[in-house]
Design a protein that fits this description.
The complex is a heterodimer of chains A (347) and B (332). With 347 residues, chain A is of the alpha/beta class. Chain A is built from 12 helices and 10 strands. In chain A, the strands form 2 sheets. In chain A, strands 6-7-8-3-9-10 form a 6-stranded mixed β-sheet, with helices on both faces. In chain A, strands 2-1-4-5 form a 4-stranded antiparallel β-sheet, with helices on one face. In chain A, helix 4 runs parallel beside helix 7 and helix 7 runs parallel beside helix 8. The longest helix of chain A is centred in the last third of the chain and has 19 residues. Chain B has 332 residues and is an all-alpha fold. Chain B has a domain of 225 residues: MetI-like fold. Chain B contains 15 helices and no strands. In chain B, helix 5 packs antiparallel against helix 11. The chains are: A alpha/beta (347), B mainly alpha (332). At the A-B interface, helix 2 and helix 4 of A face helix 9, helix 10 and helix 15 of B.
């Protein structure tokens, strides 16, 4: 099911038919429901979707940060050939923070408020390598410098509340890079930051990706962020993949009505004057996902059998996999009409 | 940090000053009537009244009288008075109406008993409560958690006088007959082992009550803290779970416990009345209740001051410990 064509490079992460279901008293929450994708070295793999589309759960599952007792997890998460889902919590702990690192949405809350930033980073160094405190400190200073924190030797002794939001996210990135991981998972890394700082952090992520030669998974709800740095994009909805394509292809020739909706609701300076078109309705409850295509109740192009048959996630001739029953001809026609209409309004 | 401690220290000093000032005003300045006339005996002459007034320092200004009051709090008063001199040591802690002994002496004798009881019990309940809380939080909804929370409910519900009498019955002459656990207080300086063994039961009874609160509080705080983002960060670093909880989780969840701990100790120094009574410890709690019941005002003043100072000192300690635990406090 993984895309035929795609990014060239060593395959680092290969997720196959991942399902993460949480049984609750109200019913089963299908947070991730049959998801497959691959991430390569040197690639920034963007995952985009509304809140509650299963973006974060996917990655927390890979890291073993989802409570295995509370969740039913199926499928495979192959990381450099090893299935992370089959590792014991103890084995997984040695992967986490060392080969697979993660940074989070809210840098204000992600650092412990009662420990010095430097000490938290030293802890990250020492947990996976047997070095002296002095060596660990040197490593931390080097990392803080590498992520662009000025005067690292002074800031080293500061507490998180003495750092600005951008600085904290830089410190988090430094922490993630401690052991030269293979993959950096960035979960909404810029959502809580000012716009100017957002751009700096994205630039930094892109920079460290090349400098450290790693794969990056960038989770976001913001297509603008994806457009800046990703090479490949997966669009998620209700725990499923809707479309997966190289970035340029996704923006120029999107094939899924949900992707169209996302693009229409994204503000662009180049098309000032164009009306933003929100997607009608709200994302479904993951306990009660609509039958058939999960997006059909909100889809303006739905037809039979959208409400009964779940469309396969496959390449229907458009060059990349997507999950929509429309024929490729219909898709191309509808997108072209849409484009024309938008331009018409804009002129 | 240094500046913060100095600031808190000054605050504590100010509080003690205000408390002593208020006490002085309420007990020695506000009551109507001339004290000199009251102390001068029946049908005093002008000269006697003047003499008494001089003796008591009533001819001096109020600030000077207040100074004498504070001085006597620190250095003592009625104890050095020759017998039969009415009003000697006034204004100061003075003598108890009931026992005719110096209140200051009484407090010095009873204080260590109450402090022994309060501090020993506090250490016991802190260790007990926090450990139970941690176990419960980690094994949430397990048998261990339910047993621990059942124990907590029992501890909160069981009245101290009942628990105390039960303990005395079990270990006393009608039960196991362990003499070392009998009631009463033994001076630490004369017999440290006896001091310890006589306090074991009171400590346990007191600790059982408070440990229950602390267990529930620790459990709740720890469960909340473990949901924080920085705990996820600690796990994402690959830290072992034990370190995630004991270092990152506990540090943040213990700050409210520290506040409660300080205040509980302070209030107990004012007297753990029921425990003291059940175990016949003759501490400050008995003294406070008895003197209040018989309107023994000097004694009440004494206990009030001790309690006020205890609260001020413990607040200071809490503030400093809190700032040590949470650096954000130091800068605000």
């Amino acid at each position: 099911m993984a895309p035929e064509r795609g990014f060239q490079g060593e395959t680092l992460l290969d997720v196959r038919d991942l399902k993460v279901h949480f049984p609750t008293p109200d019913g089963v929450v299908k947070a991730v429901d049959g998801l497959s994708f691959t991430v390569h070295r040197g690639e920034t793999f963007g995952i985009v979707g509304e809140s509650g589309s299963g973006k974060s759960v996917t990655n927390l599952t890979a890291l073993g940060l989802v409570n295995r007792k509370a969740a039913q997890i199926e499928g495979e998460v192959l990381f450099k050939g090893r299935d992370l889902l089959k590792l014991t919590p103890g084995e997984l702990r040695h992967v986490r923070g060392k080969e697979l690192a993660m940074i989070f949405q809210d840098p204000f809350a992600s650092l412990h408020p009662m420990y010095r930033v430097g000490d938290q980073l030293i802890e990250a160094v020492k947990v996976h390598s047997n070095v002296s405190k002095k060596q660990a400190e040197e490593r931390v200073l080097e990392l803080l410098g590498a992520v662009g924190i000025p005067r690292p030797r002074e800031r080293f002794r500061d507490y998180p509340h003495q750092f600005s939001g951008g600085m904290r996210q830089r410190a988090m990135i430094a922490m993630a890079l401690t052991h030269n991981p293979d993959i950096l998972i960035a979960d909404e890394p810029t959502t809580a930051l000012d716009v100017t700082v957002q751009a700096q952090i994205l630039e930094l992520i892109d920079h460290v990706k090349r400098e450290f030669d790693i794969g990056v998974i960038l989770i976001t709800h913001d297509l603008g962020v994806i457009a800046d740095v990703s090479q490949t994009v997966m669009v998620m909805y209700a725990g499923r993949a809707m479309e997966l394509a190289p970035k340029d292809e996704l923006f120029r020739k999107p094939l899924h009505p949900y992707t169209w909706g996302l693009l229409d609701s994204m503000p662009r300076i180049a098309q000032k004057g164009t009306r933003l078109l929100p997607i009608e309705g709200a994302p479904p409850s993951l306990i009660n996902v609509p039958p058939g295509c999960a997006f059909h109740p909100r889809c303006p192009h739905r037809f039979q059998p959208c409400d009964r048959e779940r469309p396969a996630f496959a390449d229907r001739g458009g060059g990349h996999p997507e999950a929509c029953h429309l024929t490729i001809e219909d898709k191309r026609r509808l997108w072209a009409e849409r484009d024309a209409r938008r331009l018409g309004v804009a002129v | 940090m240094g500046r913060y401690v100095i600031r808190r220290l000054l605050w504590a000093a100010l509080i003690v000053f205000v408390v002593t000032l208020l006490t002085f005003v309420i007990f020695y300045v506000m009551p109507p009537g001339d004290p000199a006339i009251r102390f001068a005996g029946k049908q005093p002459t002008e000269a006697t009244i003047r003499e008494v007034r001089e003796q008591l320092g009533l001819d001096k200004s109020l600030p000077k009288q207040y100074y004498t009051f504070v001085e006597r709090l620190v250095t003592g008063d009625a104890a050095e008075c020759p017998q039969g001199v009415e009003g000697c040591g006034w204004p100061g802690l003075w003598i108890s109406y009931d026992s005719r002994t110096a209140v200051r002496q009484e407090i010095i004798e009873r204080g260590p008993r109450t402090i022994s009881l309060a501090l020993g019990g506090a250490i016991l309940w802190l260790v007990l409560g926090v450990s139970i809380g941690i176990i419960s939080a980690l094994k949430r909804r397990s048998l261990a958690d339910r047993l621990a929370m059942g124990f907590a409910l029992f501890g909160i519900s069981a009245p101290v006088f009942w628990l105390g009498l039960l303990a005395l019955f079990i270990f006393g002459s009608e039960g196991l007959g362990i003499d070392a656990f009998s009631t009463g207080y033994v001076e630490f300086s004369s017999d440290p082992v006896g001091w310890f063994s006589h306090l074991v039961l009171p400590w346990s009874v007191l600790a059982l009550l408070y440990a229950a609160f602390y267990a529930r509080m620790t459990r709740g705080n720890l469960i909340d803290t473990l949901g924080e983002d920085y705990i996820r960060t600690a796990r994402a670093k690959g830290l072992p779970e034990r370190k995630v909880i004991m270092k990152h989780g506990l540090r943040a969840s213990l700050t409210p416990v520290v506040t409660m701990f300080g205040m509980d100790i302070a209030l107990l120094i004012g007297g753990a009345v029921i425990t003291e009574t059940v175990f016949n410890l003759q501490g400050l709690g008995n003294f406070a209740v008895n003197s209040a019941a018989s309107a023994d005002l000097p004694a009440v003043v004494g206990v009030t001051l001790v309690l006020a100072v205890a609260v001020a000192v413990m607040s200071l300690v809490v503030d400093v410990v809190y700032a040590y635990l949470d650096p954000r406090v130091r800068y605000s």
